[in-house]
Amino acid sequence: MSFSPNHPSEYIRRWQDDYTRFRRDLHAHPELGLEEHRTAQRISERLTALGIEHHTGIGKTGIVAAIRGREASPHSIGLRADMDALPIQEEGDCPHVSTVPGCMHACGHDGHTTMLLACAHYLQETRRFAGTAYLIFQPAEEGRGGGKAMLADGLFERFPAERIFALHNWPGLPVGKVAVRSGPVMAACDYITIDIEGCGGHGAHPHLTVDPVLVTGHIITAVQSVVSRNISPLDHAVVSLCGVRAGNMDAKNVIPRTARLVGTVRTFDTETQEWIEVRLRELVTTVAAGFGAVATLRYDRIDPATINNVQQAQFAARVAAQLFGEENVVHDLEPSMGAEDFSYMLQKKPGAYLRLGQGSGDGKHDLFLHNSRYDFNDAAIPYGAGLLAGLVEAGLPLSGDRGQGSEVRGQESGIKASV
């Protein structure tokens, strides 16, 4: 895929080596949610060097940059990237492998941050738009509430973006492809904790105990019926029990007093979400009671479903098509049962969440997200940064570009790809 020299992706490609080094530095020094102090410092240093106004400490470690276009306008667009890593021990062998034990960028947030910085560099240098672009570097996307923290810190009161966009790398799509769809794109995420209390004792005398391990097994089996026998096959829902803790592995003849199960629930529909919570409480309580034990369910709602605004999703798809060609835009990629706390921002502002291809086809960058050998594909940096920049230029056009029958300027302005 070749582009005209002024196409955002081609323009940004001239900085490929620099931003690749930056991304790999972030990968080597990952930080968990709300602990991204070094990451935030590196971002701030780069923004300062570019002469870009920015504000730190929003939602604890978040940063928001503001770039004004060539023409004044009351209109604005927000672009968001996440910064945090995951509590996973990296098992890859890349030269920039994580230097932090038990922590790695297994979801590509190092790449997302880098692409937004490269986009900021381009927008600051070209300013081919009217109004304001707000670039949001968000902490703690991975279940630690960074999106909510930024909103609670006055994100949209201080930086009133009219609409907002984000993208996430997707190993299942090759580099150069973009997936955009209207409506649900990511599921709501709830966490469940089930505590079971029985009566411990000697493994040789189980009749004198109330065995929580036995109760745990029956609860695990019963929970499998929640979706298969309570939710319409036309709906989408997942209930997964992902961890069990009971007893002491060195005490092979001791029945413990307590056991704990943990897991997650994923849904798109609020009514389905509420029904699953009700049904889980009933099952957990009654199954345990049938064995003489007591069980309690803690149900924590972490992130709501990520729902793209129809108009903004269609706008983003048109921009992607004119940047990279219609043949490189996927409109029917299935929604993911994964979750994304960008959903909180979409509840406040119209916008869309996009997926950006990062697959290499040779196995090197095709491992799925959260894999201990995952590594972001640096070849995707100009595409993602160019797409983010294109959303700003198309959504905040200069006066000479308005009313020309297209939301994206043509080849003479370097936006449309020549394939």
Largest sheet: 8 strands, mixed
Topology as H/E string? HHHEEEHEHHEEEEEHHEEEHEEHEHEH
Tertiary shape: elongated
Give the radius of gyration.
24 Å
The largest sheet has its strands arranged as: 1-2-4-3-5-16-6-15
SS-derived structural category: alpha/beta
Q: What number is the mean pLDDT?
A: 94
Strand content: 25-35%
Low-confidence sequence ranges: 408-419
The CA-CA distance between the termini, in Å, is: 5 Å
List the helices and strands and how they pair.
Layout: H1 8-13, H2 16-28, H3 37-49, E1 53-58, E2 62-68, E3 71-82, H4 109-126, E4 130-138, H5 146-152, H6 155-158, E5 163-174, E6 178-179, E7 183-186, E8 188-197, E9 201-202, H7 212-223, H8 225-228, E10 237-246, E11 254-255, E12 258-267, H9 270-290, E13 294-303, E14 306-308, H10 310-324, E15 329-330, H11 342-348, E16 351-359, H12 381-395
Parallel strand pairs: 3-4, 3-5, 5-16, 6-15
Antiparallel strand pairs: 1-2, 2-4, 6-16, 7-14, 8-12, 8-13, 9-11, 10-12
Helix pairs in contact: 2-4, 4-12, 7-9, 10-12
Q: Your description of this structure?
A:
With 419 residues, this protein is α/β, with parallel strands linked by helices. It is built from 12 helices and 16 strands. Strands 1-2-4-3-5-16-6-15 form an 8-stranded mixed sheet, with helices on both faces. The protein has a 4-stranded antiparallel sheet with strand order 10-12-8-13. The protein has a two-stranded antiparallel ribbon with strand order 7-14. Helix 4 (109-126) links the parallel strand 3 and strand 4 (130-138). The longest helix is centred in the last third of the chain and has 21 residues, at 270-290. Mean pLDDT is 94; it is low at 408-419.
